[in-house]
Design a protein that fits this description.
This protein has about 110 residues and is mainly β. The chain is built from no helices and ten strands. A hairpin with a 2-residue loop joins strand 9 and strand 10. The two termini are about 15 Å apart.
C-alpha cells in the first residue's frame, strides 16, 4: 500500500484498546479508536452537538454487533462504522464524518 494521501498517526501498539486518540489529518481533527479485537475506526473529533473537539474521549461500546462511540458531552451515540447517529438524545440526528484507517508495518495511517 502506498502512503500517498495517508497521514501517519502513531505506532499501533501505542493505541490502548477501547480508547481513542486525537490526530490531525490533512488539517482536520480526527478521533481514532482501537477496539478490544484490534479493529480500528476513525471519525471526526468535533462533537456536532457541543462543537467541542472531544469525541476521542468518548465511551467506546456497542449496539449488538455494531461498534459505537458515545459523546462525553451530551451522550449521543454513533455507529463507528458509518457515522450514523443511533441515539440523538432528544435532538435531530447528526452524522459523523468517517475516515479510512489502515496499519502498515505496525504504523496506524488515516486517510482524509
Amino acid at each position: 500500500m502506498s502512503t500517498t494521501a495517508w497521514t501517519t498517526v502513531c505506532p499501533f501498539e501505542r493505541l490502548v484498546p477501547e480508547r481513542g486518540v486525537a490526530a490531525l489529518v490533512d488539517g482536520t481533527q480526527v478521533a481514532v479508536f482501537r477496539l478490544a479485537d484490534d479493529r480500528l475506526f476513525a471519525v471526526q473529533q468535533r462533537d456536532p452537538y457541543s462543537g467541542a473537539n472531544v469525541l476521542s474521549r468518548g465511551i467506546v461500546g456497542s449496539a449488538g454487533e455494531t461498534p459505537t462511540i458515545t459523546s462525553p458531552m451530551y451522550k449521543q451515540v454513533w455507529d463507528l462504522t458509518t457515522g450514523q447517529c443511533l441515539d440523538p438524545s432528544g435532538k435531530e440526528p447528526e452524522v459523523l464524518a468517517t475516515f479510512e484507517v489502515a496499519v502498515e508495518d505496525g504504523t496506524v495511517l488515516v486517510r482524509a
